[in-house]
C-alpha cells in the first residue's frame, strides 16, 4: 500500500480498535476514535458559542497553536472555565456540556468516539 500525505486540517481521522487508521474529508464510519484538527479563525468555526455534548465518550480538547477557553457546564458546579494555550489539553468527561471560545485564531485538536456530538442553542 502506498503512503500518501493528506491535509490534516481538512480531514477526519479514525483510529480503529483493530489498530488501523483511516482518513477522509467527511466523517469516517466504523469503530474507534475520531480525531479532528481544526484551524479556528472565528466563533463560527467552533459552533458559534453553542453547547456541545458527547453522550458516548469523553473528549480530548487540545490547543495546538493559539489560545482558547473551554467552558464546561453541569455537575452542580455552575459554569467552569479552563484556559488552554498552545501545547495544553483538557479532557471533557462523557455527558458534560461544553463549548469553546477563541482568544485568538487557534489550531485545535479533538478526539472522541462517534456517534456525533449533540449541539444545544447558543450560550
Features:
123 residues; Jelly Rolls; RmlC_Cupin_sf; single chain; mainly beta; Cupin; 7-stranded antiparallel sheet; RmlC-like_jellyroll; two-stranded antiparallel sheet; 9 strands
Explain the overall architecture.
The protein has 123 residues and is mostly beta strands. It has one domain (8-122): Jelly Rolls, CATH 2.60.120. The protein is built from no helices and nine strands. The mean pLDDT is 88. This is Cupin.
Question: What's the arrangement of secondary structure elements?
Answer:
Layout: E1 12-15, E2 21-24, E3 33-40, E4 50-53, E5 59-73, E6 79-85, E7 88-92, E8 97-112, E9 118-122
Antiparallel strand pairs: 1-2, 1-3, 3-8, 4-9, 5-6, 5-7, 5-8
Report the sheet-strand fraction.
over 45%
User: Runs with pLDDT <50, length 5+?
Assistant: none
What CATH calls the topology is Jelly Rolls
Number of domains: 1
Helix-strand pattern: EEEEEEEEE
CA(first)-CA(last) distance: 46 Å
Number of strands: 9
Q: Quick one: CATH class? A: Mainly Beta
Q: What is the mean pLDDT?
A: 88
CA gyration radius, whole angstroms: 15 Å
Major sheet, described briefly? 7 strands, antiparallel
Structural class call reads: mainly beta
Percent helix range: under 10%
> Could you say what the CATH architecture is?
Sandwich
What global shape is seen? globular
Q: Mind telling me the CATH superfamily name? A: Jelly Rolls
Q: Determine the number of helices (DSSP H or I, runs of at least 4 residues).
A: 0
Organism: Nonomuraea salmonea
Protein name: Cupin
Amino acid at each position: 500500500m502506498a503512503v500518501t500525505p493528506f491535509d490534516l486540517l481538512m480531514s477526519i481521522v479514525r483510529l480503529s480498535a483493530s489498530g488501523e487508521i483511516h482518513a477522509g474529508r467527511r466523517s469516517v464510519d466504523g469503530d474507534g476514535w475520531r480525531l479532528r484538527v481544526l484551524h479556528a479563525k472565528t466563533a463560527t468555526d467552533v459552533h458559534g458559542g453553542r453547547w456541545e455534548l458527547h453522550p458516548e465518550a469523553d473528549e480530548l480538547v487540545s490547543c495546538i497553536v493559539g489560545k482558547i477557553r473551554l467552558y464546561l457546564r453541569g455537575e452542580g458546579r455552575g459554569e467552569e472555565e479552563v484556559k488552554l494555550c498552545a501545547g495544553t489539553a483538557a479532557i471533557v468527561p462523557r455527558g458534560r456540556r461544553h463549548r469553546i471560545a477563541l482568544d485568538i485564531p487557534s489550531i485545535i485538536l479533538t478526539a472522541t468516539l462517534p456517534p456525533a456530538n449533540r449541539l444545544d442553542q447558543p450560550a
